[in-house]
Amino acid sequence: MDQSPLKSKSVKFDIFGYIHKSRQTYGIRAQDYMRYRRYCAHHLRNVRKATKLSQGSSTSYKPIVVTAEMVSEAKHIEILVLQTERAWAFAMDLRELHARTEEPRQHYHLVRRLRAACKAGRYLADVAHTVCDLQTALAASAYWLQMQSQLRFELEEWEAAMDSAVFSRVVSEQLAISGSSERYALCHAMIEELDPIVRLAAYQTGMNETNRSSTLIPALASQWFESRMKSNASRVEKHVPGYALITTSLETLMTGTGGEDTRGELVDAANANKLVWRGGVVVFTNKGIASLLKTAQGAVRDCSGSGGTQQSLVAVAAADPTRLEPVISSFRRVRKAARQCYADGVSAAAKVGSSASDKLLSPYVAIQLYSTYMLHAALAAKSIGRAQALASNNDMALDSLAPAFSKASVPWMEDHTRSFGVGVKSTEGKATRTTNTAGKKGKRAQTLPEPTEIVILYDMAGKSMGRLKNTVGELLNRISPAVGRAVQAYSLIEEISAAEAYYACVRGYYAAALHAHAPHKKYVDALALLDHALNESIPKAQKLALAVSEPELESTAASWEQMFVVSSSDLSQVKTRLEAATENVRGLCAAAPEEGIAASRRQAARKSWYAEPGARPRMVPNAMTGSARDKSKASLPAYIPNLVDLSNPAFGVVPMKPLFYDLAAPSIDFNMDTIEEKAGKQTASSGSKLGSIIGSLWSTR
Prior knowledge:
By secondary structure, this protein is mostly helical.
């Protein structure tokens, strides 16, 4: 192989895909090498006829060799591949025959056929390096090296067999990481065919770390390549002609497609594409996804800042929600690309059936998990940030929300209303209504107070977290245990559930403030919302937060990845505010601030159940409210006290009506002489006996 690297790259041919499809379709699946050899011979004749390169007729033979100058299309490369496959199939058929008969002639013939396959494979590699693109040329070299390793293995030349097999493995690995999912599976299927040769040749050459377990084969190949091939190229050139040219082509492939010079790192070049998340590293092969991930993480850095000025998601959204749009769109593209790569990997695994195909799928599931997490974190933070901005603008921030429940500060709600919805225009200090023409019915947009908008925004954040939790559950069913443990993925659902419960408490806090404000004055409903948040949501969030350990975060977006991590200080702060608000609402309930209320009713209200915490019953949803569209029931309270507990009725044992069966009657000895007298019947007299005799005689006539 003394040709210089190719000058034109016009011809492309998928050698690995063509060989795998042909072998699996025409006999190799059933180990029928004779059938496959006949197919190769027949198809070779048809391809030669189609390209007008027939080698004669039935009466005459004129050999025609396909040279590099003649190659102008993929069919010319197909001829060279079929010639190699035909010789290889004949050799494998002879190997099976030799295993049954053990005749020396069969083994001698086997070696001759393998020499013919190696000769044809080397010629294919020479032509491919001259007229084909770089990846086709390297695939032809890996294919020829595989034939060479089988020949050296049969001749028991262990060092030469090890050189050819290891170098073929290295070339195939580089082709796998620079192509699609299907090529990755095809290359690793070719690598798996070399594993027995590497294992036995390493044992015969006396390597120290030799073990018959197949899990050590990559380590054996890597050690051999680093210690005996890279440092002694002149020795390898004797066993692998063209070693320097193939190495140069490999370096050109990695430098041209990876964007970085990775010379000297041929075996470990797969680590170039990484996802570092939650203390773990996920390695994948698709360079397009690597570029999209780099863009998305760059958008995160541009949005949040770097160093000591790094801001959280919620802080960025509170300052300017539009700054999150590039992040959201970037992670949507990453998620879409990861889904496509996963689908391609599933298709490749179904076609090729390589064990490496299953390993290819889990990294793309992890990328889907990461992109989905960041996407929904940004969406939820966008809603939460807007809600916190509205609250802080109206002195309703979480650390100062308790005074909003006091009697003096309730009327502020009447002065802070704004339009919320499509088609609404707002001006400084004023709120105007416009007709909403976006809907089909042209409904007028609702004018909602700002606390109502805060509650709606927290509802939107809760929906985002709920969708995220469902998606994470689906992805965890497809991820491998090793990758899942690496990124601590199995604690994600608990983290999201804790955050969901935490923000549900905050949402109930603002909803209670909305019910308690002046236009509504539904203090009982506000008390029910606070009671639910304090006694149900807070304990749930505390329990989930204690069950989840805080993940290790090492990426540049560490503060963004803490979006759904709830600390005990956050929960204690919300609990303190809820308790303070509950006391204020109890005071509002006892004071009965409605105008015109009678003194007796006011006095009774002070003694009612909601003024005494010890006698306060549990609040339950009001079943009489019905649908939200029913205007006649719109004024009914949403929650009512559970004065009578009918949830667990008491049941007692009630005996059934007995059925009288005299089971002892056969065991009782009755006195038949007195039973008729006791029953009220008289015994028959002697006259009656004569009458019965006459009657019986009369009846016989």
